[in-house]
């Protein structure tokens, strides 16, 4: 069944690379709203491709957005598309985005970031792996069925946006609005917008959530000279250091009472998932450049990054941060830290506990200064059920294409999209990456290998088939 | 004896203000070495004035200085001057400087900083109080003797530099070099380059020294994403917070073992000096904008600022310090703090104890990161003997001019010049301020009041006389 599809994909790989080259050439950097015209050009190009394949496309209004300047701007539309529908088949909705991170030669690119360039089997260019390559791979997987005159075994819907890199403005509202229309008949949602953990193909079943905290201590009405006033002032910076120092112990354990209470206990089945991951601890020490991690074994390190919460102190605003020496007593300082959260932690509950903790510690300082703690909640943590048809189908598709068992992995970082889809639509959600762990998304010299791009296209084609068998 | 001098000074006050206006008009900002030409112009102008008064002037070579860029630049000269010498008289050497801090209208000046402007008895302009006004006051005190045909009762020498605001490059070497020539016959050195503590005239008998510490923690070889790595990495920022948090308790007491051991015990005589200081604790709370100081009484607050050591944490370099949120794990962070020191603390000894303390605390963190502690020693603390003739003469001169007892005060900040003169020349040193406590040296709208400028000139004239009586 799958062989002719794979053959078609192999035979047309140069054409698929050429299409990616055309897409990469569009500078759809969403970082600067004055350049959203390029994002719209890219969305239109994607819409045209889908239409050519027989898809029905709506360029859905995503509303407006208020900039930090106060100015309100119109958002680029979101593509909502679908191919011919058969009510007997399951319906799969594919999410992707066609905007990119900024890129400039002078940032240290070896090749023009907007001219896809193949070197030793790697396709270098901004958006090659994040996320233009995977979006095209989905379309080419559909094409492989159409061109070989095979019925696509699932109904395909697509939701493609152009503002993922700046936080998907308008998208979540749109999802909510279309829950009972566009999403009503959707059974599964699949996202391919992350990377494998190693060189082995992976299925991603969880992401950490996060909250970002601002601890502001305000003291004197002006910055003071430490020679003149030092010794008589309870300095805001000293208060802040005491507060920040109360958050963690030196093993990385969060000291905020109760904050880790809701962490889902590790089951034996889950523990076993870690045995198969081909993560090389020694190699990772070299890559990162540390003598040791906080944990001793591969499994413990991965769990610390993926399935346990963590707290990182990012910096201090308002204190002296330039090179050199300056003998200032800063009047107002703001410490910044974030807590990565895992199921079943609840960000508002974490926020409340952190505030209580900081207020309690502050009360012991007998300080004349003022404490203000604020938090921005990034996203809730997400974890999928591995018994779900999507994961079973994904596992089989990996075996079909690569001949190996996938690694079941999580992302330690926050990718709000999976959790949002799951929460807003109530559908099953899977993350099915085809990008390599060394693709450098967001970095200079972003790439996707020809191997991952083409075998990834096969993976998607096989996935449609395997999913249809289970439904 | 003093009346005719005072009369002359009163009669010529408009001329003295005019001369200050001419000096303020020279933009002798020493902060930018490309503008040291203006500093030289100012030094030449001062030299011409001294010559006109019959003084002998040497523009002494101050050598060269290496800029942070590596470039070596020639330093402006230092004025070494003297008036006619009588071996029977004591010799007083006066120190001053004619360079200024930067000043621009757009920083918030109400008047042009380089156009001395009188408003309600205050003379606004950069350098009015720091230090062109006092330098001219010394010259006008000499002039008052010459013009009234009175013998100057002490031999007068002058050392006037143009780089005080950037750290007196070359000066200390020059002092050492001329110890056995220019300074050989000097009995007393007097400095008027600080301010009164209140509205009462003051004699300053001590300054705190300081050491500036850099605590560098270096970890991974690159900045890391806190989502991807958070929980597995012993973060440099967490190590740094633990180290900085070990330095102080919340009462401001330094926690470094032994660091305060050498603080001179408070004597009853010294304690009594604080009773007379007209410092208003409530007013100071309002000025600074704090609900309370670390101490409860006026005496305790002043002692904390003047005669006890203090530790201030100034900031962190290398961490996230901009507004907004960024989820970075910084790879290398440098905490910065300084310790103000008092007699008989010894900066190298303090440095050794601080390093030992930080290394000891760091060893408890079991960290894979690297700690490096470096220190720059600013200056040793200084305290004068109040039984010294200069202080007795100064006290009498204050009574002659102002009819009150002076306040005996210290400076909490580091003014290396007094300690350096005392150490390098072995002479008695006094600081005799004429500037008001609200003159705003280094700030926008720097000023000296006409009252302080003119009565200060009288104070200097009276001081020459009183000193000669005691010799």
Residue-averaged pLDDT of chain A: 96
CATH class term of the largest domain in chain A = Alpha Beta
CATH architecture assignment name of the largest domain in chain A = 3-Layer(aba) Sandwich
Portion of residues in helices of chain A?
Answer: 25-40%
Number of discrete domains of chain A: 2
Could you please say which CATH topology of the largest domain in chain A applies here? Aminopeptidase
What does the main sheet of chain A amount to?
A: 6 strands, mixed
By DSSP (H or I, 4+ residues per run), the number of helices of chain A equals 14
This entry's quaternary arrangement is homodimer
Shape of chain A: globular
Q: What is the percentage of strand-forming residues of chain A? A: 15-25%
How much is the radius of gyration of chain A in Å? 24 Å
Low-confidence stretches of chain A: none
């Amino acid at each position: 069944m799958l062989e002719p599809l794979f053959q078609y994909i192999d035979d047309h790989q140069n054409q698929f690379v050429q299409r990616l080259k055309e897409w990469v050439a569009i500078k759809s950097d969403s970082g600067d709203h004055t350049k959203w015209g390029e994002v719209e050009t890219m969305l239109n190009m994607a819409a045209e491709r889908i239409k050519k394949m027989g898809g029905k496309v709506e360029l859905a209004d995503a509303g407006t957005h208020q900039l930090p300047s106060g100015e309100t701007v119109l958002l680029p539309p979101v593509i909502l598309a679908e191919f011919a529908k058969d009510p007997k088949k399951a319906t799969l909705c594919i999410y992707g985005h066609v905007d990119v991170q900024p890129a400039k030669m002078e940032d240290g690119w070896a090749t023009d970031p907007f001219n896809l360039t193949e070197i030793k089997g790697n396709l270098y260019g901004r958006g090659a792996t994040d996320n233009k390559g995977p979006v095209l791979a989905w379309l080419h997987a559909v094409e492989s069925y159409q061109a070989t005159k095979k019925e696509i075994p699932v109904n395909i819907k697509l939701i493609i946006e152009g503002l993922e890199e700046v936080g998907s403005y308008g998208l979540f509202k749109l999802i909510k609005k279309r829950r009972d229309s566009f999403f009503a008949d959707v059974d599964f949602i699949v996202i391919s917008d992350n990377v494998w953990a190693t060189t082995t193909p992976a299925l991603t079943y969880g992401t950490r959530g996060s909250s970002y905290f601002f601890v502001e201590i305000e003291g004197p009405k002006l910055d003071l000279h430490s020679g003149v006033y030092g010794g008589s002032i309870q300095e805001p910076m000293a208060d802040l250091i005491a507060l920040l120092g109360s958050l963690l112990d030196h093993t990385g354990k969060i000291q905020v009472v109760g904050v880790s209470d809701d962490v889902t206990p590790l089951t034996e089945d889950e523990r076993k998932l870690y045995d198969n991951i081909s993560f090389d601890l020694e190699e990772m020490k070299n890559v990162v450049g540390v003598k040791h991690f906080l944990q001793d074994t591969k499994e413990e390190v991965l769990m610390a990054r993926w399935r346990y919460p963590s707290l990182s102190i990012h910096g201090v605003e308002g204190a002296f941060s330039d090179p050199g020496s300056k003998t200032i007593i800063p009047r107002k300082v703001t410490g910044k830290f974030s807590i990565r959260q895992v199921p079943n932690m609840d960000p508002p509950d974490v926020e409340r506990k952190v505030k209580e903790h900081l207020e309690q510690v502050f009360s012991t300082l007998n300080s004349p200064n003022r404490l203000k703690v604020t938090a921005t909640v990034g996203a809730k943590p997400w974890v999928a059920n591995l018994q779900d048809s999507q994961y079973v189908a994904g596992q089989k598709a990996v075996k079909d294409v690569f001949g190996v068992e996938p690694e079941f992995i999580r992302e330690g970082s926050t990718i709000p999209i999976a959790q949002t889809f799951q929460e807003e639509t109530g559908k099953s959600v899977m993350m099915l990456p085809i990008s390599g762990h060394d693709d450098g998304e967001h970095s200079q010299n972003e790439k996707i290998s020809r191997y991952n791009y083409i075998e990834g296209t096969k993976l998607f084609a096989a996935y449609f088939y395997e999913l249809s068998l289970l439904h």
